[in-house]
Amino acid sequence: MITKRFIGAVLIAILMSSLAGMAGCIEEGEESVKVGAIYPLSGSLAATGADVKNGVLFAADIINKEYDLDLPMARSKGIDSLNGAKVELVFGDSQGYPTTGKSEAKRLINEDNVVALIGCYKSAVAAEVCQVAEDKRIPFLTDQATAPSLTRQGLNWFFRTTPNEETFVRNFYVFLNDAQKAKGIGVETLGLVSENSIWGNEIAEYEEQYAREYGYQIVESISYDSDTLDVRSEVRMLKDARPDVVMQASYLNDAVLYMQTYKARNFCPDAIMADNGGFIDPEFLHVLGADANYILTRDVWSHDLAATKPLVDTVNQMFKERYGTDMDGNSARAFTGMLVLAEAINRAGSSNPEAIRNALRDTNVPADVLIMPWDGVRFDPKTHQNILGNGIICQIIDQDYYTVWPWNLATKELIWPMPTWEEREKAKVAFVFDTGGLDVDGFNSVCLSGAKKAEEELNIKLDFVVAKTIQEFDDLQRGYAGAYDIIICTGSNQADALLDVSKEFPEQKFVLVDGTVSERENVASFIFRDEESSFLAGALAAMVSETNKTGFVGGMDIPAITRFLAGYYAGARYINPDCELIVSYVGSWTNPERGKELALELYDDGAEVVFGAAGASGVGVIEAAEERNLYAIGADTDQRDLAPDNVLVSTLKCTDVAVFNVIKEVVEGDFEGGIRSWGLKEGGVGLSLDNALPIVTDEKKEEIREIREEIIDGGIEIPSNIDVNSKIGMYLMEVAIWIYMR
Asked: Domain total for the chain?
């Protein structure tokens, strides 16, 4: 006789067996829902993989924490319907290979017990993972892979949020037709370039199909192996065919290689229209710099979409603070895909894979809670392709991506045709020089020599102006703003004007050489620790002088000259504690007559050596030394040729190196604002010891070199702002020097 207890036991056993078969079911108290994320985290696509990984990690943080954002899952902590369970990402590395991606999918499902998959970037990898997900009955959402065939296989467990390549390719031709009508451009012939995996092959098929439909002639079609090392023959074929436009589908390494070869072979069609891929990877711009400019690429996202959707800017700034770079189309798609998957899990109210799949089928995410330029996310009932997605076309302008189509979303005017390689300029550089002039071998002329070197080696366009009065700085800086890639201003006298102008033009890059503008991200301020080189000059002056007196002639009584003065005095007292310093100021950078007059007074007052830190006015100091047959110390550049028997030595300020380097940063897209300090250690300042007068013996040179090394090592700390004209200042200086000497 079967008892009720027996029947109950059987029912419990059946129930337990059923529950055991439900992969990933959340038990009471379970704290996370595991999602497998498969991307190329190593190999040739590792940079791209890192980018999309950041996208899904950022989305997981939005899901798991609480944010006041109009995004799916942002306003609560974790999965609401599962008692706040967190999304736990478990990553798999496909290395960019289909077989590896397949094995990683199996591992994530069988060993890590993930309840869903997201990935995979490459369509060829996604094609293999699709089959694993189908066999294992695990929902798989691709946020990246765009080969149209993926959603045409009748798969039950595969979903795609991103538009596919048929949509993107059709966009190319609609854009070309629109541009011919709106902009009057002419296009008749096309060249096709595509890597030969499923992604590139399907793109080429649709490009050929729509070329026939829209009436364009294909004059060359190239299919090549991804990660190839030489594309010279392919580029030669394109150059011989002379297409008006090249449509190209390449991953990162190939995209960079083709661009480098285009330049080397001087191939420049009217436009290169890239099918996303490597052309939007952050490394593409990092490697190519300005050579990437003018490329057109289809995309799904751009940070300038914030102009019409403020949510884009909010999310992008959060991403940038966390990962140090703007979002791009890849990371934005990954971010969106993860949010859509989590939103489906929340509606499913379960981590059971079948429940998640059913929820994905019913997805209907509106456009206003997405950062994408889509009409929303809703999957086709049969193919599971998002039917509300669409693309945009961006152009690289000044090494950044700007939307140029559709016209209603455009933030920049389309540049067509793109300039030839000969026509391109790496950068347009403007100089606003301080009132010191350029007709002497001094501060301004050294800065200009760095720019001239950049003009020769970096192919920049250079323009400059010399201010006649301090009152002109504001108008001169403003006159260049907006028309040049970078504006370089010399001298601390320009700081006040630059503070105002840089605020007025926040997108304009500025540099202040030998001065500071604080808290302006678009201004790089170069400070030279002149007190260090001046300390060496003062030490040498004390070694040479027999009068216990040395002189100093400054151009103006400003902080930049105070650094020279403080260092010079400290160096002299370091060698001779009884050494007296007598100081005069010209009040101008361009009055050598007055500089000579003051220096003669200092020589007559007993100074045997006078240091002239006065711009063009310092030439007068050297003339006075020659007239009295005594010694002068030059400034900023080696000035011995002005008086070969009287210029003891010169302090050196390597402004030419600083100027060249910052122009190179702009050319390569690596410019950063902020204050930079250059001293002996960095090679920013120095002393022309090797060209000193014969009175500077080898023993004295060796002693100066030892002092130099001690400064670099931190054994001597040099004051930079003590007023030696005040009794208190001189007392503090003497105390400081006594401490150093101890």
From this structure: 4
DSSP string, 348-402: HTS--HHHHHHHHHT--EEGGG-SSSSSEE-B-TTT-BBTT---EEEEEETTEEE
Q: Is the preceding peptide bond at 406 cis, omega within 30 degrees of 0?
A: yes
Assess contact for 714 and 679: CB atoms under 8 A: no
Residue range 112-146, pLDDT digits in tens = 999 999 999 999 999 999 999 999 999 999 999 99
- Domain end point (choices 336, 353, 377): 377
**One-letter amino acid identity for 641?**
D
User: What does the alpha-carbon distance between residue 516 and residue 525 come to, in Å, rounded to a whole number?
Assistant: 5
What CATH number is associated with residue 36? 3.40.50.2300
Is residue 624 assigned to a domain? yes
Are 79 and 147 contained in the same domain?
A: yes
The model's pLDDT over 532-577, given as tens digits with 9 standing for 90+, comes to: 999 999 999 999 999 999 999 999 998 889 999 999 999 999 999 9
CB atoms < 10 A from the CB of 137, how many?
Answer: 13
Task: Label residue 441 by pLDDT band (50, 70, 90).
Answer: low
Q: 554 in a domain, yes or no?
A: yes
Does a structural domain hold residue 232?
yes
The answer to whether 222 touches 208, Cβ cutoff 8 Å, is no
- The answer to whether the CB of 703 falls within 8 A of the CB of 543 is yes
What is the distance between the alpha carbons of residues 277 and 250, in angstroms, rounded to a whole number? 6
The verdict on 473 and 576 lying in the same domain is no
